[in-house]
């Protein structure tokens, strides 16, 4: 996964919609260089001064962008993702919620074949405060540059945790939402591999939730491969009922599969500390940094 | 969306998978008529979505009309997991010797659909020993792959042929109807050498329903869940007394944890969604106000894209319209000072942190 750096061109698919245009404005304000937008049939228009094209191919050839953020409605999402991958886009940030899971599996297969990365779907996106790059819908004010890499399955919890971190002096090297759907095209395991290679990153914060086994897999990955940075986790949904979908398509417990307890235990076994509330995360980080500074 | 057993079995039939002869009964007369029209004995099965139906007494055998009448009455009055049936499936009892577990399901870790099968049918899949798991490509299962599942279960001859045909058909059903889960448990080997699906569970991918108008009117929904889904809220009804509202699924989920940790009991999970406008906040608070088991409302908002002033205006307006249940709120983020000012002259109990708002909501009488 190669994330855009400061000043690198990106495109917005679905730029003329309500969300697409609002977030184009907010991303531009943050400093993201949005060089082109795409909405079929709206070529020639402009949004916030960004030229709109009918196809991804035109937008890419005019802008040289290799990253795209997509605000395309779920029914049309697969087609838009396919168009982007075939036009040579290498990073797709899939903001859209409610994409059928079989469409996600198909686009994941296609992306792999073309060595492209998809973040999401149903993700708030990714933000790199030190680069002034925001490819997402997160509120900019919660995020400050720093040394914590933050990965989350939930959007608003990511903002809440970032806010707690920032106001306690823990800025972020990057924050990335893997998405609230049952299938994450970029997994927590891939996120932690990315964090391993980021020199400025000192700690990793994982915000997980009930459903699936992404956190258990992450714990196993850490145990198998080793991970040299400190990990603090938080899992939402300790008191959630079983067999009920708790807002996110992926937040559902079946039997004993997907419980918060299983995830908390797995993370602890892998050497992570686990906070019981979002507010506790900076406290655990502080304890760790203090301890290290003493030794 | 989970289907009732009878709906799942109709799908199996459509895909050429044998199911026992059965009829749906909404009243005693229909149950007896169904019994008269089929071979005996029969089983009567409560049509609820909750699990653990057999253990709860929701499946009863009957071999004469008196027994049918009695069983029907018992089942209709039996609540399972808080759910009462609106009908009973009367089904021919199928004598059989062995059972198999078979399902097509999404393996989230493998990021693929899989076939899961085991010779120990009838019980919880998690505890199945010697289960066979076969990954399926996005194009669907091949004949050879279906055969290989049968071989791993040590089936041979005619049994292997029949079983692999069922695997292939169930996979086609799951793919074409876009099911998250299509499960037959148990699949019975009958004395005559046939295979029959005795029970079935199908969970559809809600996000794919726009491609499947055939499922649009399948369910009698809970009144509140129906209203919430029309409003576009993510809503789950719970059993406690504190109605929990917030913006963002993860945030509401973590608020439920805070409530439970403080000794409270949530009445619902309501996610307003991102960028909630004033009208949506009004609709959400009104919905929780109508929820009979909620006697107080806890609102937890972290405003990013959502403007907290919109939230405050929404809350103020429902109070002016007469919402009487006490409201406890934590509202922070964009424009929070203005939001506080809007709510200052209302009876809303505003708190600076989620834990303080939760504590206040739980402690109040």
Could you walk me through the main structural features you see in this protein, from its secondary elements to its overall organization?
The complex is a heterodimer of chains A (295) and B (365). Chain A is α/β, with parallel strands linked by helices and 295 residues long. Chain A has 2 domains: 9-119, NAD(P)-binding Rossmann-like Domain (Rossmann fold, 3-Layer(aba) Sandwich); 138-294, Rossmann fold (3-Layer(aba) Sandwich). Helix content of chain A is 36%, strand content 23%. Chain A has 9 helices and 14 strands. In chain A, strand 3 (46-47) and strand 4 form a beta hairpin. In chain A, helix 3 packs parallel to helix 4 and helix 7 packs parallel to helix 8. The longest helix of chain A has 15 residues, at 280-294. Chain A is globular. The model of chain B has no long low-confidence stretch (mean pLDDT 92). In chain B, strands 5, 6, 7, 8, 9 and 10 form a 6-stranded antiparallel beta sheet that branches. A 6-stranded mixed beta sheet of chain B has the order 11-13-12-14-15-16, sandwiched between helices. Chain B has 3 domains: 21-92, Dna Ligase, domain 1 (2-Layer Sandwich); 96-215, D-amino Acid Aminotransferase, Chain A, domain 1 (2-Layer Sandwich); 223-363, Succinyl-CoA synthetase domains (Rossmann fold, 3-Layer(aba) Sandwich). Chain B has helices at residues 5-14, 28-36, 65-76, 143-152, 157-176, 223-231, 249-261, 278-290, 308-320, 336-344, 354-363, and strands at residues 22-25, 42-46, 59-62, 88-92, 96-107, 112-118, 132-136, 179-190, 195-197, 200-204, 234-237, 242-246, 266-271, 296-303, 327-333, 349-350. In chain B, 35% of the residues lie in helices and 26% in strands. Chain B has 11 helices and 16 strands. Chain B has 365 residues and is an alpha+beta fold. Chain B is elongated, with a radius of gyration of 25 Å. At the A-B interface, helix 1, helix 4 and helix 5 of A face helix 7 and strand 13 of B.
């Amino acid at each position: 996964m190669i994330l855009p750096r400061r000043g690198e061109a990106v495109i917005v698919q679905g730029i003329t919609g309500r969300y697409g245009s609002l977030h184009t404005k907010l991303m531009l304000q943050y400093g993201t260089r949005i060089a082109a937008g795409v909405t079929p049939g709206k070529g020639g228009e402009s949004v916030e001064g960004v030229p709109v094209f009918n196809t991804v191919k035109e937008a890419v050839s005019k802008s040289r962008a290799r990253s795209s953020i997509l605000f395309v409605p779920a029914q049309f999402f697969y087609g838009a993702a396919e168009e982007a991958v075939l036009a040579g886009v290498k990073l797709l940030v899939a903001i859209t919620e409610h994409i059928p899971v079989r469409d996600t599996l198909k686009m994941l297969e296609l992306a792999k074949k073309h060595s492209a990365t998809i973040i999401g779907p149903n993700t708030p996106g990714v933000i790199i405060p030190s680069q002034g790059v925001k490819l997402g819908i997160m509120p900019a004010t919660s995020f400050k540059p720093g040394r914590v890499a933050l990965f989350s399955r939930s959007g608003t919890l990511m903002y809440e945790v970032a806010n707690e971190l920032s106001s306690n002096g823990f800025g972020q090297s990057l924050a990335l939402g893997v998405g609230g759907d049952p299938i994450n095209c970029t997994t927590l395991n891939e996120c932690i591999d990315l964090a391993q290679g980021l020199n400025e990153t000192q700690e990793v914060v994982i915000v997980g939730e009930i459903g699936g086994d992404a956190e258990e897999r992450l714990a196993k990955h850490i145990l198998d491969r080793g991970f040299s940075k400190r990990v603090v986790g938080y899992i939402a949904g300790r008191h959630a009922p079983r067999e009920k979908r708790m807002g996110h398509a992926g937040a559902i417990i079946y039997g004993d599969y997907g419980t918060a307890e299983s995830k908390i235990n797995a993370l602890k076994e892998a050497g992570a500390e686990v906070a019981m509330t979002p507010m506790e995360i900076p406290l655990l980080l502080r304890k760790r940094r203090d301890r290290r500074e003493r030794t | 969306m989970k289907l009732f057993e009878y709906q799942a079995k109709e799908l199996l039939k459509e895909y050429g998978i044998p199911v026992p002869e059965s009829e749906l009964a909404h009243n005693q007369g229909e149950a007896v008529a169904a019994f008269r029209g089929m071979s005996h004995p029969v089983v009567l099965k409560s049509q609820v979505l909750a699990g653990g139906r057999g253990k709860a007494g929701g499946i009863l055998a009957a071999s004469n009309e008196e027994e049918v009448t009695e069983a029907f009455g018992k089942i209709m009055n039996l609540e399972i997991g808080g759910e009462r049936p609106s009908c009973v499936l009367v089904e021919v009892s199928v004598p059989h010797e062995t059972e198999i577990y078979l399902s097509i399901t999404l393996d989230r870790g493998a990021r693929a659909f899989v076939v899961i099968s085991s010779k120990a049918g009838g019980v919880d899949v998690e505890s199945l020993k010697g289960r066979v798991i076969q990954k399926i490509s996005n194009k669907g299962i091949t004949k050879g792959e279906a055969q290989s599942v049968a071989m791993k279960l040590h089936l041979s001859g005619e049994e292997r042929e029949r079983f692999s045909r069922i695997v292939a058909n169930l996979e086609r059903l799951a793919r074409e109807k876009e099911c998250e889960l299509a499960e037959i448990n148990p699949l019975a080997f009958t004395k005559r050498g046939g295979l029959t699906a005795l029970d079935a569970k199908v969970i559809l991918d809600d996000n794919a329903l726009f491609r499947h108008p055939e499922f649009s009117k399948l369910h009698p929904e809970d009144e509140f869940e129906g209203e919430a889904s029309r409003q576009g809220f993510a809503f789950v009804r719970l059993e406690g007394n504190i109605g929990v509202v917030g913006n963002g699924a993860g945030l509401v989920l973590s608020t439920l944890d805070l409530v439970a940790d403080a000794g409270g009991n949530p009445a619902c999970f309501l996610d307003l969604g991102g960028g909630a406008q004033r009208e949506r906040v009004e609709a959400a608070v009104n919905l929780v106000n109508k929820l009979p088991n909620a006697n107080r409302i806890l609102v937890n908002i972290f405003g990013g894209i959502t403007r907290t002033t919109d939230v405050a205006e929404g809350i103020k307006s429902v109070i002016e319209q007469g919402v009487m249940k006490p409201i406890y709120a934590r509202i922070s983020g964009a424009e929070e000072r203005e939001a506080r000012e809007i709510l200052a002259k209302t009876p809303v109990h505003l708190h600076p942190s989620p834990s303080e708002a939760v504590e206040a909501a739980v402690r109040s009488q």
